[in-house]
Design goal:
This protein is α/β, with parallel strands linked by helices. It contains 11 helices and 8 strands. It has an 8-stranded parallel beta barrel, surrounded by 8 helices. The chain binds pyridoxine-5'-phosphate.
Length: about 250
């Protein structure tokens, strides 16, 4: 069984589009509430809830993360930049896991994997702090041999392979090569003792192939499930993705 980590950032994106200036993040007129969405998604079979607390707070707010920590019954995975402020926040919040991602203010969404090699000291300090606090760290990396080997060396228990390049190449001749990179990367990671997750750009069509990447433990999926929920409701969009992940 491949597990589903539901990324609920874009529920907060819709809220912030209207209520960015509001003092509160839920109640009164302020909607939609990402916490309510998370609880419904869990009921429909989501195995964990993922949020990215971005430096610019463009969608998820600190209060959302605190309310999720108190409310959800599955696992809370906090995506974050590897910065001193976020490390401090994670250590006080104690999510079940953190996923370290690169963060660039200009990007629409996380565009590239974390450059572990280029940020070795910072990533190492973060992994050690999380390991000491009993919080699992996942490194969001491209399926590159060097990055995977370094992740194993740093004793990050999990990696999340960036499926964005594959998703972007899906309707092009590069798709097979991108899929192979993911499969080779997953095998190398698994042989190095890492738990293999994957995410970014996964949808109801490409899941048929993504699910065949070897050694998959969990997929983190957001945009496609939240988008479909506009038409079907979140419970059905979660159930349908889970059916397609594990037919
Ligand atoms: N995994 C990571 C590390 C991400 O940054 C994102 C996007 O926020 C996702 C998974 C989910 O990507 P998508 O919204 O395209 O499903």
């Amino acid at each position: 069984m491949i597990l589903l980590g539901l990324n609920i950032d874009h529920c907060a994106t819709v809220r912030q589009a209207r209520y960015r200036q509001a003092g509160q993040t839920a109640g009164g007129n302020v909607e939609p509430d990402p916490v309510m969405l998370a609880l419904l998604a869990e009921r429909a079979g989501a195995d964990g809830i993922t949020v990215h607390l971005r430096e610019d707070r463009r969608h998820i707010q600190e209060r959302d993360v605190g309310r999720l920590r108190e409310s959800i019954a599955t696992r809370l995975n906090l995506e974050m930049a590897c910065s001193p402020a976020m490390i401090k926040f994670a250590l006080s919040l104690k999510p079940d896991s953190v996923c370290l991602v690169p963060e660039n203010r200009e990007e629409v969404t996380t565009e590239g994997g974390l450059d572990v090699a280029g940020n070795l000291k910072r990533v190492k300090a973060c992994v050690q702090a999380m390991n000491a606090a009993g919080i699992r760290t996942s490194l969001f990396i491209d399926p590159d041999e060097r990055q995977i080997e370094l992740a194993a060396k740093l004793k990050a228990p999990w990696i999340e392979l960036h499926t964005g390049a594959y998703a972007n190449a899906y309707h092009t001749p590069r798709r097979a090569a991108e899929f192979k990179r993911l499969s080779v990367g997953a095998t190398l990671g698994s042989e190095s003792g890492l738990v293999i997750n994957a995410g970014h750009g996964i949808n109801y069509i490409n899941i048929a192939e993504v699910r065949t990447i070897p050694h998959l433990h969990e997929l983190n999926i957001g945009h496609s499930i939240i988008s479909r929920a506009l038409f079907t409701g979140i419970e059905e969009s979660v159930r349908e993705m889970k059916r397609r992940m594990n037919p």
